[in-house]
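Quarterly update from the structural biology core.
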Amino acid sequence: MHPARVLAASRLNLEPLASRSDMGFYRAYVLPQLLGFSERFASMELVRQRAVEYATGHVLEIGIGLGATLPFYLQDITSLTTVDPNARFNARLRRRLRHLPFPVDVREGRGEALPLKDATFDCVVTSFALCCVGDLARVVDEIARVLKPGGRLLFAEPGPSRDVAILKWQRRIARLQRVVVDGCRTDRALDAAVLGAGFDLKRLDVTYLDGLPKALACVYEGMAVKPL
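Predicted structure, tokenized:
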């Protein structure tokens, strides 16, 4: 990608980048291997595709990781801005941007304090990312802050099953899952956080990934709109 196209997206976001944090050996070397595997997992790929296929205009993706969603964005989006706290992920992501037809601005930062201006984006996308944030309510508030009035939140995130038997197993393995999957929690319902932040929840589907035990496979897919 030509540098000028990257700079065109950067003009949207004028606040300073977050400082880098010590990720440790696991987050630097082991976690990328796990995420790389998930990119090749067919049912997860389909969920990611559904999460981004309606993104338009100036788009923000939080927790993009290694960029598994990049192939699914429409080529005519105006720009894509990404925010991820993992510096190594961001470095690898930048190597995947060369042939994209839209400008991309890769930012390092946390969802609880997005390094972005108010009311900047038409859409915010999250897929398998908000389960790993420390303060979900604060992140959703930040999403509302950076969205334009009428802007859309498109999400696909792990969540608690509506089936009591499956939910029991989710709770049994919760501690191990947090250790293995970078703090991932499936006991927080994203729809409650979205409604609590004042969004209008327009669509919500609770689905299960194929090929995984249901205790590991429950996903909340949907769209919410920031009121005008």
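The first strand starts at residue 58 and ends at 62.
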